[in-house]
Amino acid sequence: MKQDALYYFLQALGTLFRVRRIYPPGKRQVHQAARQAAQRLADWGHSVRITLLGEDAIVEDRKLEGFHPSFRGLFQSLGQSGCESVQVEADANENDLIAWIEHVISKERRSYRSSKIVAGSLNLETHSDHSPSALTQAVAGYLEFLSQAQEALSDLESKKAEGLMRAREIVSAIAARLTIGKELFEPIRKLKDYDDYTFTHALNVCVISSALARTLRVTQDFVDAISLAALCHDLGKKQVPKEILNKGGPLEPEERACVENHPTFGAQLLYDIPGVVSENPLLPVVAYQHHIGANQSGYPKPPVCLGAHRLHYASLLVAVADVFDALRTVRPYRPALNIAKVSTILLKEMISGKLHKEYVSALFMLLKVLVPGRKVVLSNRKQGVIVETYPSNALTPIVESEDGEVFDLSVPSSPNLFEVVEEDPLKQLEGRKLLETN
User: Fold this and answer.
1) 74 within 8 A of 86, measured Cβ to Cβ
2) Least enclosed by CB within 10 Å: which of 42, 104, 177, 188?
3) Bridge-partner residues for 119, per DSSP?
4) Is 146:199 a contact under the CB 8 Å cutoff?
5) Is pLDDT of 406 > 50?
């Protein structure tokens, strides 16, 4: 469906629905969203009929296969209620749209009929998912995995085939833990002062990559393959002198060159381990590619004939997990960065094209970084607070700026996220509670 006036009306209608769920009736933000939707309808200049067909919809004569994030919430709510069609007349105004949305929000199980809008019976359902955190148990499990990872990676560094078996066992155990809950993330998020960076980083990247891979529509075997590749992604650092890896200041050019050779060293080491090429060919691929970058601005520099589309998506996924954990971990030359600073760096790396947008978004969703109450800066330099997020894309929340303007970042003409603001966690919690009571 092309980006035309009808499409913009649907986006504006979805935004009105979401804004009204956030703000009480009569609020300026609701009327602002309604005026925008009415203007988009006027720009279209015709009546609009929406017919819902499960996960798809027909708008006038156009079939939408899957719903755009900006109006997915409204359409899914209508579909779940058994509503089959909505008819909006061309001259429906701001008040007409608000009255219908009020009916939707009220959850009344009856058809809606006015002079400008006719719709089937609507019912909105909300779901809550509270999964309590058990940090103490999670840390115990994490340390157990860490000990096993040390043994497995030490064997792999020595090119022992049994190291591959140990690594597979770790990946299977991590997958099982992630299947029943995400508590394994708690040590990664909160405990960042472990001394042995090499092993903890490898395990952290493995856990994060495993969770990210689970968001893809791939088989469990392939999730395990990505996880195993993530666990082994930095094996090439065995060839880099420790005094360079642990240097407390800027690297000299020759030292930088040595560090930038570790992907090549790692790929070669893995190729030389019996069973890798025949049974786990993804391992050397990820080891070699994870620093190249989605825009190929990193290292090692691939042959000119290797286009960006040839980079394996597993390498792009592991790269996001790699950068996140490296920034969150204490290093000899800097302390661990807080989550706001890390998130801002990830956003900038994504905007530059170095990190893959889809995997950055998935990581933010998994770690609950961009949540209601979080202060952000937009690309138009306006500061605001997130008031609602899309369940399918963390990068396109609804943001209210300090001057009261509401931006739905899923709309193409809206600004983008630019910076995540560091703030007192207690103040952030108070902000969320205040938002819930409004």
Assistant:
1) no
2) 42
3) 86, 112
4) yes
5) yes
